Amino acid sequence: MGWVESLQNAIDYMEKHLLDAITIEDIARQANVSEFHFQRIFSVLTDITVGEYLRRRRLTLAAQELSTKDSRVIDVALKYGYDTPESFSKAFRRQHGITPSQARNYTGKLKSYNRLSIQVNLKGAEPMNYKIVEKESFKVVGVKREFSCENGENLAGIPKMWDDVHVDGTNDLLFQLNNGSIKGALGVCVDKREPGSPLMDYWIATAHTGKTPESLMELEIPASKWGVFEVHGAMPDAMQKVWKQIISEWFPSSHYKHAGTPDLEVYSNGNPSSPDYYSEIWIPLK
């Protein structure tokens, strides 16, 4: 099964089971990837989390039912996964801007989020600069935090973590310690690989040989074949743009698959807001 087909299978599974209490483990299994990698791919491609997609689709269908059938609000709330009419009404108003009762009475506009269909560009309009390299295992030292991938916690928490390391001086220390083969500060996503767990570790680190300072922890990055992609431009937009190109253009048109070990984002010691800022994305391949 191809990459695009497996991802579409997962989306079709979500659509088929919108009225069921499905888990991210159930969904990711349809795409033959871990929960962590499925959620990351999904959020990069769509700019929303899996949970938010399910909520939007359920509330879209709920609104259609209220406006076309003589259903009671409490019955619709229970049908689409809400324990109380109050929680349903709050979520409904947040999406549609009106109450469920107003939707029943055809008062106000409704917002529809349609079913997703994955489409990829096999020939990107813009060229991608990358190289394939093989590297033995190496050590990185830095700080880590645990995040949940549910409800976008990691998407909000990781930028805050970067702010913290710039304020407390950790970022400067990492550049001082950087004597390994990869130059720069690293953002490292580690899949915890526990079935059913939405947790991940995120490291801000640097490649380092020698003794690990007491204030930092160390992580061994396994030997791998890497796809190294150039990123040019201000953060975070430039990095997000290349991630989307990799997932929607490069992977579908290449014979490589993600190896399942940690990805690396490599940041140079410059001004990340500069339009000339240079960084890289390192992806382990198989």
Explain the overall architecture.
With 286 residues, the protein is α+β, with helices and mostly antiparallel strands. It has 2 domains: 3-104, Homeodomain-like (Arc Repressor Mutant, subunit A); 130-285, Regulatory factor, effector binding domain (Multidrug-efflux Transporter 1 Regulator Bmrr, Chain A, Alpha-Beta Barrel), CATH 3.20.80.10. It contains 10 helices and 8 strands. It has helices at residues 3-16, 24-30, 35-46, 50-68, 73-79, 85-96, 100-104, 153-167, 170-177, 237-253, and strands spanning 130-135, 138-148, 185-191, 199-207, 217-221, 224-232, 263-267, 278-285. It has an 8-stranded antiparallel β-sheet with strand order 1-6-8-7-3-4-2-5. Helix 1 packs across helix 2 and helix 2 (24-30) packs across helix 3 (35-46). It is elongated and about 70 Å long. The model has no long low-confidence stretch (mean pLDDT 90).
**Domains (count):** 2
CATH superfamily of the largest domain: Regulatory factor, effector binding domain
- CATH fold descriptor of the largest domain: Multidrug-efflux Transporter 1 Regulator Bmrr, Chain A
Tell me the radius of gyration: 22 Å
Q: What is the topology, as strand order, of the major beta sheet? A: 1-6-8-7-3-4-2-5
Q: If you average the pLDDT, what whole number results? A: 90
Question: Which spans have pLDDT < 50 for at least 5 consecutive residues?
Answer: none
Biggest beta sheet attributes = 8 strands, antiparallel
Estimate the global geometry from the Cα principal axes. elongated
Straight-line N-to-C gap: 16 Å
CATH architecture of the largest domain: Alpha-Beta Barrel
> What percent strand?
15-25%
Element order: H for helix, E for strand:
HHHHHHHEEHHEEEEHEE
Number of strands: 8
CATH class of the largest domain: Alpha Beta
Structural class of the helices, strands and pairings? alpha+beta
- Put simply, the count of helices is 10
